[in-house]
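Appendix B. Chain record.
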Amino acid sequence: MVRKRIALVFIGNYKSWSGGIIYILNLIQTFNEFDFNTKPEILVIHSPDSPIEDIIKINYPFIAFQLFNPNKIHLLINAVSRRILGRNLLKLKINSQIPASIYPYNAHLAFEDIPKKIYWIPDFQYLHLPQMFSSKELNSTFKRHLYISTLSDTVVFSSNDAMKDYVTNFPNFKNKLELLKFAQRLPEFNHLNINTIKEKYKVDRPYFFVPNQFWKHKNHITVLKSIELARKNYKDLLVVFT
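Structure tokens predicted for this chain:
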């Protein structure tokens, strides 16, 4: 039996992009629930700071790892060549059997020998909330999406709204579009005692729970302003941020 072989990009860490890290962990956990005969072989492309120990804990039976740590000159040459030639001039090698596909791909990875490259665009926050991003971030993200739209590769979206945004803003796209809705798998909390945690953080009454990460676009300021207003009538109001 020949197993499908795929590469998953696991670059970064919880500090730089926790959403992307958790997304890949969820994918591997999902693959681990497949029937034994349909489980694919996974090659994890990771950076030096990636939390690969969390992947190892999943105990996936068919998995290997390859470090992605190219030098800055290599990245610069490819960035220039993509702008001028529309492709990477220098390509990186896979150290083992070449996977059939790689996801979520980014052009700077330069794994040109992998035949099927699948991109992922989870949302278009930079278009809907431009005030939350710097002009440099807005420009670079738009250019990256514009470049992707010129390719014949598949693009995966996390919602129908994101796919509609793409079609609207990049109407000349050449890609095949696919929808894969984001599903969160929370870790087990059975070993934690909620009463101990409440005591530790002095949570002594009913509370409003805000688990969002502290990014600008999560708009925590609205919650804080609401608390200020609500406490005029509800002195005991308690809000818990994680």
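Further analysis of this model is presented in Appendix C.
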